[in-house]
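Document type: protein sequence-to-structure record

Subject area: structural biology

Format: plain text, a pair of labelled lines:
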Amino acid sequence: VQVSESGGGTVQAGGSVRLSCATDRWTFAHHAMGWFRQAPGKERTFLGTITINGTTYYRDSVKDRFTIYRANAENTLYLQMNNLKPEDTAVYYCRAVIGDTYYWGQGTQVTVSS
């Protein structure tokens, strides 16, 4: 199972970024997927997840600014991030869960400048 993120970059505070996560059709159709991030010197933290029927769950600190959604025809998961803050600077990871196994992407860097 391969998971691959894209869409990172540098953005000014207050701006928006949309990250993408691509995987194979079977994984996308049958398993929940989620987004995490890891800031420099910190642990990887949960941001949100989406079930195969589209139900979402978010970390409280981002739920008013971040939106996770699925594009089923594209087998792609998205993370829309608005009103970005310098503290959102991190490497963002996508994860698929199949049984007891986690499949992570390589991560994509998002840098928010003040």
